[in-house]
Please model this.
Amino acid sequence: MEEQEQIKEQTPQADAAQPAESWRTALPAEIREADDFKQIDSVTELANAYLAVKKHVLTGNEMGDTPESKAAFFTKYGKPAAETGYTFKLPDEIKGDEDVNAFTDVLRKAAFAGNLTDEQFSAVMESVLNQPAVFEQKENEEKAQRNRVMNEYAVKCGADFNRKMADLNTICNSVGEEFVNELIKAGAGFNPVIIEGLLRLGDAYIEKSGGLYRSDGAPVLTGKEIDAQIAKLRADPAFLDAGNPRHKGVINQIDALCKQKFAP
Model:
């Protein structure tokens, strides 16, 4: 009898008889003070959270070793029984497109082979279909940014802006289309720092060598002088040798001279 009384005294009382936070005190401080843990108000809530998470945590060899057990495992977590079981539907405006349907079928087969759940496949397809819109938005933002930069540059240049743009066009034509295309790819054509640098290089070239054009775009050479320059360039061994490192430069110079000669 006395022993039963001692056991009774040592038995923990119901939660309601304990201080409200007593169950927290046995836990390490880093757990008690964690932001996510502060949201849990009772042992019951903690237990429910644990059970909810446990449903999605693998323990032991839950997948199994046989094809049947593996298939059952992925089915349990949301993989359809067949690739046609994915519930994602294409939007009405594109569902009749044969290419889109063929592409979707490929993705559906890949998803099934990769054991994606129905929810995961839908998320993948939504992301794929949103890519054109995302790309277009990014392109529009970049275009707007370029316009802002050039508008600010135009304000800064004032009345000189149009002349500078004409000079830039002249310099680019003199250098060649390949160089201009690379500038465009790099976005440098809308960079005021690059523009100013090219204009200064053009001015320096004109002062030192006479150049193909003056900075105001007016011809430097007469028709006969241009013909003489072209003849000299055609006599250059690099003109006929495509493997020569200077070949492209010679061709560009001849092209620029011809444009200058026949410019309106």
In short: The longest helix spans residues 118-157.
